[in-house]
């Protein structure tokens, strides 16, 4: 994580808050919460993205990122990569440089790491579980 050059940590709602905020505290870096639509009490920017069963929206406070700031994403699980790619898109829309994402668990059979690679984000996970 330290080798990523991160200047802030972003965590996606909801379990990404637990892991991301912990990593940010340990590294003494700012934490950027990426929320579901309508949850922040300020003006936001957002991005809509497709799910297997519909669509969703992520939002953030654009003032929480300094243009050119290097932000690493942290979440509990990498499955299809849809939420993480949407998060990278949102952070970049706010002016961040996003090149790294860290997960506790990767489910490689679902292709999330490949999708993130196509979004220009390198991934790492503490553990992975192959499918049957």
Can you tag this structure with a few keywords?
single chain; 132 residues; alpha/beta; Rossmann fold; 7-stranded mixed beta sheet; 24% helix; globular
Shape: globular
Provide the spatial order of strands within the biggest beta sheet.
Answer: 3-4-2-1-5-6-7
The share of residues in extended strands comes to: 35-45%
Report how far the terminal alpha carbons are from each other.
30 Å
The average pLDDT value, as a whole number, equals 95
CATH first level = Alpha Beta
What's the number of structural domains?
Answer: 1
Biggest pleated-sheet summary:
7 strands, mixed
Instruction: Give the low-confidence spans.
Output: none
Give the CATH topology.
Answer: Rossmann fold
- The SSE string, one letter per element, is EHEEEEHEHE
Over all CA atoms, what is the radius of gyration? 14 Å
Q: Helix coverage percent of residues? A: 10-25%
Total count of strands: 7
Reported CATH architecture: 3-Layer(aba) Sandwich
DSSP helical segment count: 3
């Amino acid at each position: 994580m330290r080798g990523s050059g991160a200047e802030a940590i972003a965590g996606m709602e909801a379990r990404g808050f637990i892991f991301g905020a912990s990593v940010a505290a340990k590294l003494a870096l700012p934490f950027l919460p990426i929320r579901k639509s309508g949850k922040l009490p300020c003006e936001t920017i957002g991005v809509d993205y497709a799910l297997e069963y519909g669509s969703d929206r992520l939002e953030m406070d654009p003032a929480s990122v300094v243009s050119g700031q290097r932000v690493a994403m942290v979440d509990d699980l990498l499955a299809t990569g849809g939420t993480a790619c949407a998060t990278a898109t949102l952070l970049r829309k706010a002016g961040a440089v996003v090149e790294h994402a860290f997960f506790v668990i990767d489910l490689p059979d679902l292709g999330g790491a490949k999708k993130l690679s196509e979004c220009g984000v390198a991934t790492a996970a503490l553990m992975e579980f192959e499918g049957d």
